[in-house]
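Board notes, transcribed. Complex of a protein with 5'-deoxyadenosine.
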Amino acid sequence: MSMTYYINVYGCQMNFHDSEIISGILESEGFSSTEDPESADVILLVSCAVREHAETRVLGRLSHLGGSSRDRESGKPLMVLCGCVAQEHGDSLLERFRDLDLVVGPDCYRDLPRLISESVRMSAVDFREGDYTGIEPVRMEFPRAFVTIMRGCENFCSYCIVPYVRGREHSRKSDAVISEVTALSEGGYGEITLLGQNVNSYHDGDTSFPLLLRKVASAAPCSRIKFVTSHPKDLGMETVEVMASEQNICRYFHLPFQSGSDVILKRMNRGYTAGEYLQRIGMLRDTMPDIVLSTDVIAGFPGESEEDFQKTIDLLEEVRFDNAFLFKYSERSGTAACSFENSVPEEKRLARLNRLQQIQRRITVEKSGELLGRTLRILITGPAKKPRQQAGRTEGNRMVILEETAFTPGSFVNVKITKADGWTHFGEPCGNPEN
Ligand code: 5AD
Ligand code: SF4
C-alpha cells in the first residue's frame, strides 16, 4: 500500500505553490494525499516566518498534531516541518519538538522522499541555486495556477526575514517558464499568476521582467495573467507599457508601500521616497485609468512617530487602494530593524493598525460600491460556500458570487454587479459565457 501524506500550508502564495510542488514530488514517488491528519503516514506543515504570529500558529499546530498522534494505535506518523520557519530555526526545532522528525527548508524539497524513507531525525536546510523545473506540481486551485519565475530576495528591507530564509535571488530560465505557462493555458487554466519575491528584478540573459511578461502573455492567449510581488524601486515604464498593450494581462497591481514617511522608508531600506512611490502609481493610473490597486503597509515600525504615521494615513487616503494588507510591525530576529532604537509599544502598534484598518475598510466599501450596476468579466472558479452558489473572480481579484448558476469552472462570464459587501460582490450573468 502506498504511503499517505497530509499537507497543511501557512503564509503567502509562494508557500502555497511550494506545497503544490512538494505534493508533486511526493506523488511522483507513489505517495497519495489525504485530508485527514489522523490517518496520514506523513504530516507536512509548510510554515511562514514573515511575522511572529504566523510562526506561532504553525508551531502551535505542530505541538497539537504531535501530541494527538502519540497514542494512536496505527503508529506515529512522520512529522515534517517545511518552509521558512524550518529554514530559520533548522536543527534547534528537533530539540524543541520531540515529535518532530524532519525539518526541511525551501530549497531541499527534492530530498523529501529520500528523507522520509530513511526516517532519520534530521534537518535539511542548505541553500541551493536550483529550482523545481521538471517537477509537475499538484495544482489545487483549478482554474487558477501559480508559476514561480524567481526565488529568493536580496533587497534586505530592514524588517524582513525573507532574504535570510529564502536565500539569494535566482531567476528561472525563461524557456522553462514559458513551457509551463503554455501547458497551463492548453490545460484550460483561466488565470496564471507569476510568482517571485521581487518579480521586477527577474533576469535570464536578455530576458528581463517586461519581456518575460510579454512572452507569457502571448504563450497563454486565453488565460489572464497576474504577477506578485513588485517592488516600487524596480518598477519601470516598460512593464507598465507591456501591461497596457497586452489584453490578457490583468489591470491589477499589487504594489506594497509599507510606510508613507520618507524617514521610515529610509530606515526600512526600501530605496524609494513616498513621492517616488506616488509617481509609480501615477504612471500606472495614467496608462490604465481603471487599474485595480492593492498594497501592503506596516504600522509601528521602530521610531515611527505620530507624524510619520500620519503620513502613512495620508498616503492611504490619497491613493485610495481598492484593497490593502495591513500589518503591525513584528520583530524578526536576525533582521537589521531588531537592533533599532525607539521601538513602538505593542498597544500603540495595535492602535495604529486598527486605525489603518478602519480607514481602508471605508475606502474598500466605497470603491466596491462604485461597481454597482457595472458589467465585469469574471473567471468562474467553482462552487461558493453556500449551496447553489458559484464564485468567480474579476480581473482585479474581487470575488463575485452568482446564485443558481452552473457554469463550467474555467469559463469567463460577464456579470452585472448587484450588491457589494466589502471585497465580496454579488452579480447576475449577462450574455453568453466564453471559454
Ligand atoms: N513585520 C510586519 N510586517 C511584515 N512584513 C514583512 N515583514 C514584516 C515584519 N517584520 C509584511 C510586509 C510585506 C508583507 C508580505 O509582509 O508588508 O510586504
Ligand atoms: Fe522582504 Fe523587502 Fe525582499 Fe519583499 S523585497 S521579500 S519585503 S526583503
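The pocket of iron/sulfur cluster (ligand 2) is lined by residues 153, 155-157, 160, 162-163, 197-198, 231 (CB under 6 Å). The first helix runs from residue 13 to 28.
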